[in-house]
Amino acid sequence: MRLILSLLVLTFTFGFFGSNSVLEAHPWGGLVIDSDGNVYFTFTCPIVDDHHYACVWMIDQDGNTQQILNSRYSPSDIILSRSPSRYVLAAERSGQSPSYRNMLWEIHSDSISQVNPAKNYSNAFHIQAYAIANDSTLYFARDGQLFSLQKNSTASEIDLGRTINRIDLVSIDGDGTLYLVADNALYKKSETGLKLIANSLKDNDPENIPFRGANILFDMCIDDSGNVYLAYYGNRRVLKVSPSGDVSTLLKSEGPWSPSGVDIYQGELYVLESTIGDGAWWKFWNRDDNELIPRIRKLGKNGTISTIYEYQLED
Questions:
Q1: Domains and CATH numbers, the chain
Q2: Who has the most CB within 10 Å: 208, 231, 301, 307?
Q3: pTM here?
Q4: Which of 19-33, 60-74, 200-214, 254-268 is predicted least confidently?
């Protein structure tokens, strides 16, 4: 299962004004949970700061929060992925297109080790969107192409059976089946190509869009019944897509919060939300009115919504 975590000014400068107006990266979003119930999310470090160093933060089972990984450069991305068995990787990207620097990290609650793509994976590895399987096979997207990659091997392109403009999200369910969000639609990989599950996931003109250019599906996860959950940042909602393709709103975020990460653990849904306040998006850093901050809410099995973490600004 793949969940994305990242943040940066680079998203704005290179994503919104790119040739195809599609994000090269994902700002301040993404959340995964390991097999012990530790919650990982990415945000800047420090959380309120003039610079834009991406970090991985961990909330342990006792509710303690600590920074466990920080990027080497600013601006930067850290994108988290977990396998269906909840083996966690972090992919760091820094620099500017096309000369990105990529690095892989294996994350445990008590240790972090570097996985060098140059030695263990082909240099073709790209972190536009990626997922890791239980057997450590990496699946990653580059524009509209999907590749598989095993250790000490080279990347092999996967035949999707159709033309895709851009793959935004990749995830793997408990049976090892690949799911893609591409071209505003959700697909499931089959032996013959891609099976369409649902299309028109995003609204053309969301009423609650946080800022211009933010109509983004940030993250997704899949439960044991094949339901897909999407963090729809652009309309401040968490969407649920059933195996038959029915799309419903599972959770709403009230402004200025917007969902930017999602995972499901033991039947409960965890949602990372972020806010940049009500100011102009290009002034989200060094602002006096509102700060860029995160919180995490949980939707319990009984429908109760609770906040398990919220960054508190100093008075």
A1: 9-310 (2.120.10.80)
A2: 231
A3: 0.86
A4: 19-33
